[in-house]
Amino acid sequence: MFFDTTKYPLGILGPKNHNFVIFEGNVTNYINCLFLKPSMFELKAESGGARCGVLHTKHGKVESPFYMPVGTKAAVKNMLPEELYRMNVNAIICNAFILSLRPGIDIIKQGGGIHKYMNFDRCIFTDSGGFQVLSKTMLVDLNDRAIRFRDPFSGVKQTLTPEKSIQIQHGLGADVAMCLDDVPHYGRDYDYIAGAVKRTHAWAERCIVAKKYTDEKQLLFGITQGGTFKDLREKSAKKINEMKLDGVAFGGLAIGESKEQAVQALNWQLPHIDKDKPRYFMGLGSPDTILEAIDIGCDIFDSVYPTKNARRGTLFTGNGPIKISSFKRDYGPIEEGCECYTCKNFSRSYVAHLLFVKETLGLRLATIHNLHFMQKMIEDARTAIKNNEFSTFKQEFLKRLKPKAL
Asked: Which of 231, 288, 302, 380 is catalytic?
């Protein structure tokens, strides 16, 4: 005997205040009410395929497209939070799994959560730990239930399940959590990557279930996989998109494939993603490819590329990257017209000297410049989208910029 929902109301017991809410209608309406919440992503402007929007989080609004500096261990290398604020950095990403190992979730929770602990009062994404599958030194093995890692600090074996990943990210208090995914190495065969796709989808479903028992204000993004195989990319995009998730990320890219292959993978997947969901290209940091990805509809980016290059002495300019060690007798700024602290106060020669003698200040000055370059590029891209001039902006920018690999 079936319960007649057209005759009798359905109710929901609120999880926090225990209010009992009555819903008239059928089961479909009831299920929809379970997931009803204000829009967390607003699309504000478009220019061709490029989009400008606003992501609403617990720690404020973030205008897209945006690039997130990487703070793996709760710090963007060589940067103070105040310096990030001055660059208008409104979001960063940390690694939840690494932080769970050291200093540990309990320590961060007792310190007031990740924002207070690192004194960054803007949006923080956390990576689930899936990317560490690519680490030969950390990965022990994985199966459909979990991933086993070797703790890089103690050598002790650790098990990471989708449920534990969500618990960790909830404990940190991140604004945006990521589903645990299986990231296959570039170049693996079709069957192997098909298995990673299937596992990634199953883990996303488990993350969604686990998320119901945590912070309702924390956003949860799913991750697509599929390598460089068209049918797998399309299948993964459709599956992740249909799940009750706040955003969709493109994973398993920027790990060795060509720029053309990465953009092609996006072109396969983007048509299957709802327009009102934010789209996140994980791990992409090269300026030229970011602009290509924005042009076809990506909104969010992160990468260690700018900061790692800075520490190695490769600095970004509008005419392409330069190796600062070649400018020991150049007393001009890294880039004429740049408004970053480094360019306004120091010469190429001085930065080259500091990096050569391994002075910490050199690392800081180089990092400040590269991150400023990235933020200025993204801000200019947003302005161009709002003015419906992105295609022209991209063409002019790339004309000056020497192409770089992912």
From this structure: 302
Domain identity same for 19 and 87: no
Range of the domain at 8: 1-36
| Co-location of 121 and 243 in the same domain | yes
pLDDT score of 404: 52
Q: Which two tokens stand for residue 271?
A: 């048509």
Q: What sections of 27-179 are H helices per DSSP?
A: 27-34, 81-86, 96-101, 105-110, 114-118, 162-172
Q: Is 288 a catalytic residue?
A: no
CB 204 within 8 A of CB 231: no
pLDDT, position 3: 34
DSSP 274-309: -TTS-EEETT---HHHHHHHHHTT--EEE-SHHHHH
Largest CA distance in the chain: 87
Angle in degrees, CA 207, 277, 119, rounded to 5: 70
Q: What is the mean pLDDT for each group of 10 consecutive residues in the chain (406 residues)? A: 36 36 38 55 98 98 98 98 98 97 98 98 96 93 97 96 97 98 97 98 98 89 98 98 98 96 98 98 97 98 98 97 98 98 98 98 98 98 98 96 58
Asked if 229 and 217 count as a contact pair (C-beta separation under 8 A), the reply is: no
Determine the straight-line distance between the first and last CA of the chain, rounded to whole angstroms. Answer: 59
**Are 168 and 261 in the same domain?**
yes
Q: Which tokens is 225 given?
A: 């996989």
Q: Which of 127, 175, 181, 288 is catalytic?
A: 127
Whether residue 32 is found in the same domain as residue 54: no
| Domain end call among 279, 308, 337 | 308
- Which pLDDT belongs to residue 33? 44
127 an active-site residue? yes
In a shared domain, residues 138 and 163: yes
Counting the structural domains of the chain, the total is 2
Would you call the peptide bond into 321 cis, given omega within 30 degrees of 0 as the criterion? no
